[in-house]
Amino acid sequence: MKIGADNIEINEVAPRDGLQIEPQLVPTADKIAFIDQLSTCGFRRIEVTSFTSPRAIPALADAQEVMQGIRRDPDVIYTALIPNLKGLERALAVGIDECNIVMSCSETHNRANLRMTRAQSKQQLLDIIEQAQAHNLPCNVSLSTAFGCPFEGDIAPEQVLALSQEFMAAGATGITLCDTTGMAYPTQVTQLCAQHIAHIPASALTLHLHNTRGMALANALAGWGEGITRFDAAAGGLGGCPYAPGASGNVSTEELVHMFECMWINTGVNLNRLLDIVKDLPALVQRPLSSPLLTAGTRLQTHPAPAWLAEHFAA
Ligand code: COA
Ligand code: ZN
């Protein structure tokens, strides 16, 4: 296994990627309280919401109220997903620290998710980058389906790299390689990350992994080994794209933090505080959730020995 950096950054995306797909609407005040709690955990970034069409993503129609309602910790970068110029306008009106703009690497997913061709999306994104620069607003580009598309299958890595390079040349401050539906596998992650790092500084790259097929932690390790230091993750493993069949949860933040902590890699995240928040997630989303870490405890959380042991070995 390749060894990566000693320090990594975690971007918590549950308020956006997590809540966008939840069947029960989470009240605005509860979202604000959730984000305020996450702000105390030590995340580098929190993706607060998305400024998308309320018809496309009804669960996040309250983006402006949420953005205005949260307490902002100066050490946290509060970001939001933006699909078009209208979304940028709405975000600018309430103030965000960074935009996370999005398009897909595959034509079919882009059309399904954003109702635009890739060419139209690319033009919107280039226009957003230009306008964001005029407002001194950093602009990260999230490339969906970078590791495979649920409609088209494999995506040529050269095609993903070409998009990344075009956006970086246009002034994007970072690129997120998104495994939208958990199609990535470790050697593929190694390859795509290595190809990117040959052209783009590793510090500008983020991995966004879904655990749809149980490979998210393995993929995170593969990316870390290549030099990736920024990871998106969602508390409780919430999340999924409503326009991607079979999409399910993001890599769970608590599992990602726990894994890296076991390896003595610093994430900056307070795991106990995070687990307290995860405990309350079923009440927030009004459905049962299972979190293996809550069930089993962290690795060195030991249990009392069975009571009969003392008696049995007394003689
Ligand atoms: N915020 C709020 N409203 C928006 C908007 C935005 N960013 N963009 C468009 N709208 C409104 C328009 O004003 C228009 O409203 P009207 O019918 O009352 O006049 C309506 O939505 C349709 O506008 P149009 O430009 O034709 O958008 P569309 O219906 O083609 O949808 C997107 C395009 C990109 C706005 C929409 O597909 C979207 O928001 N997708 C995001 C999907 C997503 O977040 N997926 C998960 C994360 S990857
Ligand atoms: Zn996602």
UniProtKB/TrEMBL annotation:
<keyword id="KW-0479">Metal-binding</keyword>
<keyword id="KW-0456">Lyase</keyword>
<dbReference type="InterPro" id="IPR000891">
    <property type="entry name" value="PYR_CT"/>
</dbReference>
<protein>
    <submittedName>
        <fullName>Hydroxymethylglutaryl-CoA lyase</fullName>
    </submittedName>
</protein>
<dbReference type="GO" id="GO:0016829">
    <property type="term" value="F:lyase activity"/>
</dbReference>
<dbReference type="InterPro" id="IPR043594">
    <property type="entry name" value="HMGL"/>
</dbReference>
<dbReference type="InterPro" id="IPR013785">
    <property type="entry name" value="Aldolase_TIM"/>
</dbReference>
<feature type="domain" description="Pyruvate carboxyltransferase">
    <location>
        <begin position="8"/>
        <end position="275"/>
    </location>
</feature>
<dbReference type="Pfam" id="PF00682">
    <property type="entry name" value="HMGL-like"/>
</dbReference>
<comment type="similarity">
    <text>Belongs to the HMG-CoA lyase family.</text>
</comment>
